[in-house]
Amino acid sequence: MKNTKVSSVGERALISILSEIFKAPDGREKGQEGILIGAGSDDCAVLDLKGEDCLVVTTDMLHRTTDFPEEMTPWQMGWMSAAVNLSDIAAMGAEPIGLVMAIGMPADTEIAFVEALAKGMQACAEFCGTTIIGGDLDTHAELTITGTALGRVKKDQLLLRRGARPGDLVCVTGYTGSAGAALEALQSRKPVSETVLNALFEPVPRTKEARMLAESGAVTSMMDTSDGLAMSLYDFSRQSRVGFRVRENALPILVEVRKFASNPDKLREFALYTGGDFELLITIDPQKIKKVQNICNLVVIGECTKYEAGIVLESPECNLITIEQRGYQQLKAEAVDRSS
Ligand SMILES: Nc1ncnc2c1ncn2[C@@H]1O[C@H](COP(=O)(O)OP(=O)(O)O)[C@@H](O)[C@H]1O
Ligand SMILES: Cc1ncc(C[n+]2csc(CCOP(=O)(O)OP(=O)(O)O)c2C)c(N)n1
Ligand SMILES: [Mg+2]
Known about the structure:
Blueprint: H1 6-21, E1 35-37, E2 45-48, E3 53-63, H2 64-67, H3 74-91, E4 95-105, H4 111-127, E5 132-139, E6 144-154, E7 169-173, H5 178-187, H6 194-201, H7 207-216, E8 219-224, H8 229-240, E9 242-247, H9 255-260, H10 264-274, E10 280-284, H11 289-293, E11 298-306, E12 311-314, E13 320-322
Helix pairs in contact: 3-4, 3-7, 5-6, 5-10
The structure holds adenosine-5'-diphosphate, thiamine diphosphate and magnesium ion.
Pfam family, one: AIRS_C
GO molecular function, one term: ATP binding
EC number: 2.7.4.16
């Protein structure tokens, strides 16, 4: 790996390299017992609390230039910084129990800006039934916010990326592609509604939905779609050893987003690859689908298949197209092998 730059492998491959370093030679997590899920395999790490509960932990960093479009208000930057972390807690089926927010900023930042930032963070935390319990302040060249979220879930309700089986139904909450359309609209200076813009600026963690899904006993695996539907399907596939067949016609996309996309390729780009929607991607035992149908806004988009069948999109004309392994990746993405 000497002389190879991180930009040539991308975030996913770098996570694999680091996760190996953090594992003991026998493949288990290094350190003390009680680590149920360690680095690199799920939305959160999972720690055994020795009773019937487990603790889930995640951290995510956002930067002014790469994550906050100029049109975002400081309140929205705060909301989003909390939301990206709380979405990972939701993805485990867990209830959030606290957020720690570290903020780095230039010394000439106005106090009013930091207050608005904090109010946005707190609003999102409260929406999810939790609060900010600490943080850190530092001088930094550009606004950088690193959140750490903690959550709790009963061991028998914990939902992992692992657990999907061939024949399970694949579902998503909310709409896909709205954040992607918003980003494109901002970049090309085209108008879109506040609903579409807010999908990007104020993503809503699916905390309540996640808890209801975890309690239903019908869900076999779950994660969030922060990096896009396609990338999430590949992450699922790697952990559960299943393939997927997704029906393009079934993808929940706002009418406005369909109209905004100038052609079917663009629409696929928003719905599958751009990311930023922070919805839940769920697999469900088909025998138990009735248990979840009415508990939240959920759409069946396809089914799990054998791993060897790959990850495919069934077009409205019933053609099968391979879904590509790409999405929102930090450190300049390039595809990594599905088995890695
Ligand atoms: N620097 C790192 N060291 C150890 N684990 C990491 C590192 N970066 C990411 N991970 C782990 O890789 C997995 C995926 O990370 P990431 O893509 O950031 O998740 P998400 O998109 O759900 O926030 C998680 O289990 C995360 O803890
Ligand atoms: C300028 C700009 N580009 C892109 C985005 C969209 N965006 C920001 S974070 C993110 C998804 C990744 O979020 P997260 O899961 O928190 O990051 P990861 O842990 O995967 O690094 C997306 C799609 C944005 N908000 N602003
Ligand atoms: Mg996640």
